[in-house]
What does this fold into?
Amino acid sequence: MRIEPIRAAGGRPAHIRHDDDLILAKGVSVVMAKQLVLQNIDLSIPKGSFVSLIGPSGCGKSTLLKVLAGLVNPTSGSVSIAGLSPVEAARKRMIGLVFQDANLLPWKNAVDNASMLLSIADKSLSRAELRSRGQEMLELVGLGDSAHKRPHELSGGMRQRVAIARALALDPAVLLMDEPFGALDAITRDSMGQSLLEIWQRTGKTIVLVTHSIDEAIHLSRHVHVLGIKPGRITESLDIGLPYPRDLSVTEDPEFVRLVVQLRTMLRASHQPGGAS
It folds into this structure.
């Protein structure tokens, strides 16, 4: 299958590289089962940035996230995390992953779930050291008082906080999140988004978030990349100039409303196969 390059709207590259880029994807295409899933993805993400990927269902957002994580190899093109391949970066504990399902071990309490990945990654740590790190991360996500609780004693939002704590326990440079709040009700989702924003501001991690929510993408992000379908590719990139720190009151700002309208227009175009290219 021949893979032709796609450029974003206006004939410009989808994103321009900066000297402080931590994540860099160049010409990334992915073919699965003879289907072109992603085509010619150019993406640069500065260190410490908060970036959202948004687009129609089936446009390859999750696949792109898995490519960045080293879970899927690109058919063509390259990806680097701080100059390393994603697989090398993952081995060095530079990448943390959070999915829509928290996937906590039901027989472990919150603090042991929070330190589980670290216990696998670093066998030299004692149980006391692991629990100390797990407790520290639970405090960071606002669950310090729930360390003893098992998953069935936690709400959906609380379980996702434990999943975020588990990823952060590795102290990764990059946090990749695939619809982590998608199964939550609207009010809990808003609360979780605000909590994530505060964690980002406190830790300085580089976060890449896959979301279907326009409001969430604009509320949290510095940059939003819109993916189109058939094939999956970046059709538009939107810089969010709203100042930080942000809280939920930002949604009432006229600039927020303008950005919502602009991003919604971009998403409408992205739903057309081969559109906005």
Q: What stands out?
A: The first strand starts at residue 21 and ends at 32. Residues 186-203 form the longest helix (18 residues).
